[in-house]
């Protein structure tokens, strides 16, 4: 994806963003980073014809529309791929029973066609337009990953099925055990790479312990290097569980076209954050676009200026600006990106913007 334009969504009144292989959003609390990241979840639900169910569960259209339904009643967007040759756009209007798609367009090799039927859900799944197949592949991959919940009843403690839960990694990590089991069975080289990556920040970790039950269900269990005891997810620290999930997400053999994640550094040791930065770069080199929001100065210190987008809220609307290495070069000879951000030389993304 090369470009995205969003209008009327949450704090985003009107924003156009050129996207790169790595896109790291930095900004103060409430600036709109998470709103931008959540928009891709919105698109995924739109594609899956679950948009109005999703909106209802999020509190209704008043919570989705910019400044509420009294200020605006439409959301529109435009996505471009392959330098504008392919694209997808839509205009959605709030009605009595949720959103209605007033317009839904596919662009293929520069030609645009409206495929809308003015329905409450998207029509892209059912069109025979030549460009649909390409766009559908991208929309299916738009999932906002979050591994924040690591408590005693977290998704990591649940059972997953070694037949049904192996096709892609779930957003909350619930199928971590089944997905990792599948990789062990089908790609031992990648499996061993993931194990070694986990051991680099958790040296006591030996391996996963896979024991499917009669229903072919499995849960996260593991063994350490110093005993014969089989441990569960609750025996791992919060940061270690998250790092295991991140390792699987970024090192899996068949990466999605896009990885979208909010605050992946949460609870990680500085050494693990360094590893995370390496995994992000490695994934981008394997043709996987990465979009993430962070407040970690440690994480952004591993990236170039062009990888970073500052996010600010000005007069109630979110503004995005990509940093430019050339403009900052006179400072970067003596300071890091983090230094410049802390010193307000990079003024975007600051609480007092």
TrEMBL record:
InterPro entries: ATPase_AAA_core (IPR003959), P-loop_NTPase (IPR027417), RecF-like (IPR014555). It holds the Pfam family AAA_21. GO terms for biological process: DNA synthesis involved in DNA repair; double-strand break repair. One of its GO terms (molecular function) is ATP binding. Residues 22-301 form the ATPase AAA-type core domain. SUPFAM superfamilies: P-loop containing nucleoside triphosphate hydrolases (SSF52540). Gene3D superfamilies: P-loop containing nucleotide triphosphate hydrolases. This is AAA family ATPase. It comes from Arachidicoccus ginsenosidivorans.
């Amino acid at each position: 994806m090369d470009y995205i334009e969003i209008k009327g969504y949450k704090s985003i009144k009107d924003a156009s963003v050129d996207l790169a292989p790595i896109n790291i959003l930095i900004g103060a609390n409430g600036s709109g980073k998470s709103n931008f990241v959540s928009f891709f979840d919105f698109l995924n639900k739109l594609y899956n014809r679950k948009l109005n169910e999703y909106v209802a569960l999020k509190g209704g259209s008043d919570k989705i529309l910019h400044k509420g339904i009294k200020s605006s009643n439409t959301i529109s967007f435009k996505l471009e791929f392959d330098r504008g040759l392919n694209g997808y756009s839509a205009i959605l209007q709030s009605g009595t029973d949720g959103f209605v798609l007033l317009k839904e367009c596919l662009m293929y090799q520069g030609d645009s066609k409206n495929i809308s039927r003015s329905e409450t859900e998207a029509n892209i799944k059912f069109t025979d337009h030549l460009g649909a197949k390409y766009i559908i592949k991208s929309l299916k991959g738009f999932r906002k990953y979050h591994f924040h919940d690591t408590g005693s009843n977290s998704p990591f403690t649940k059972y997953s099925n070694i037949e049904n839960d192996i096709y892609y990694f779930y957003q909350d990590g619930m199928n971590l055990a089944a997905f990792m089991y599948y990789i062990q069975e089908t790609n031992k080289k990648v499996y061993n790479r993931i194990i070694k990556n986990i051991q680099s920040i958790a040296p006591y970790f030996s391996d996963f312990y896979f024991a499917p039950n009669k229903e072919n269900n499995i849960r996260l269990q593991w063994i350490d290097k110093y005993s014969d005891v089989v441990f569960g997810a609750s025996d791992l620290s919060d940061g270690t569980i998250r790092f295991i999930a991140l390792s699987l997400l970024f090192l899996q053999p068949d990466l999605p076209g896009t990885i979208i994640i909010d605050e992946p550094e949460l609870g990680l040791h500085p050494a693990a954050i360094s590893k995370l930065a390496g995994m992000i770069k490695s994934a981008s080199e394997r043709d996987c676009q990465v979009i993430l929001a962070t407040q970690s100065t440690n994480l952004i210190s591993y990236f170039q200026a062009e990888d970073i987008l500052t996010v600010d809220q000005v007069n109630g609307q979110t503004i995005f600006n990509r940093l430019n290495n050339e403009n900052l070069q006179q400072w970067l000879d003596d300071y890091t990106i983090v230094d410049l951000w802390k010193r307000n030389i990079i003024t975007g993304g600051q609480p007092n913007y």
